[in-house]
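In this supplementary section we document a worked example of the pipeline. Step one takes a protein sequence of length 426 as its only input; no multiple sequence alignment statistics are reported here. Step two produces a three-dimensional model, which step three serialises into structure tokens for compact storage. The input and output of this example are shown verbatim.
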Amino acid sequence: MKIAVIGGGSTYTPELIQGFLERVGALPVTELALMDINPERLAVVGGFAQRMVAARGAPFSVVLTEDQRAAVEGASYVCTQLRVGQMEARRADEYLGLRHGLIGQETTGIGGMAKALRTIPVILNIARDMREVAAPGALLVNFTNPAGLVAQALSRHAPEVAAVGVCNIPLGAKMQFKAMLERDLGEPIAPERLELNTLGLNHLTWHRGLKLDGEELWPRVFAAYAAEQKDWDGAVLDMLGMIPNYYLHYFYDTAERVAAQSKWPPSRAEEVAEVEKGLLAYYADPANTAPPADLMKRGGAHYSTAATQLLNAHHNDLGEVQVVNVRQGGAVPGWPADWVLELPCRVDRSGVTPLPAEPLPPVAAGLVAQVKAFELLTVEAAVHGDRKAALAALLAHPLGPSQRQAQMVLDDLLTTHRAHLPQFWS
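The serialised model returned by step three reads:
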């Protein structure tokens, strides 16, 4: 079985390699193709990946290539983890927000929009290559942020390619709640015994249920969380009866988050860039054959687990329930079927199937609808280079600029990232 990783020069790649090595017995990988457009990073990260695999007896080959089509050809799974414009573009997204008094973040608000406009055409191009040369029934597993918005673009503009958006946050929440239950019950719990009930959009979800062996234990989990947490007002949390994804601080505590940006530098992109320098130096050392502890400073805890669990459940027809991003197709009554949502899905050989879910209450559903309108407009802007759709997306977003500021912000965004937005400048 061949797996292609587009963005193979990412500093995340060794964690993904580690995940595949840990599942060699269940996931029969024969070839892992690492593709990247940056030959220097590909050589460093890819060389380290090859040493990792060799140190474990070379159960599969690791092939390095700058040719996307060659990487995709014959692949059963294509994992996308790319960053158009690399870390400098992320930094530009953050300071774009700072310049205009808006949230500067890589997946939320103006930064998330800029990243989506750069990323969607590239991912759709990968989907076209998959349609033409990948193995029959190949699955595109996207980790590239904004993962939900990218999945929405794939659903609307490449529906013939099976695709799913994956994020590490649901798994991280599950592991957090697992630890709480273990303290409460006084015994260890295997993660596969737990089923998390989450609904919303990627980075805009609310956790509202946790089953252990089919028994709903949410009241115990919620009470334990409420007693320990310091991030949310107690009355608000009690009113919700749900635990918000931490990205909701950008929506619920906007002024506080914008004020925190005044302390930059360093922004998060600048912090990560420094971490990456150390990681790349470690990867380049021919004596190293195992991922370093500092990899966790990069962020993305549970990334390899989320990735390999999904591939394993799909390939081996396990029917596991995992929280991922797909077209909901009527699983949530009353919500448009073509919306891509982050929700529990059954993963087996037939695909990734959303499970029936109750809609969110109005306090959350209204925000989801508003951000989904932004997402749909951003998809059309990205695909067609439509400046009016981009302006509409800015106005639709609850974290967007005022109407007097919107055109100036859009002009700044398009100029800042002109090299990566040819569809707007043709």
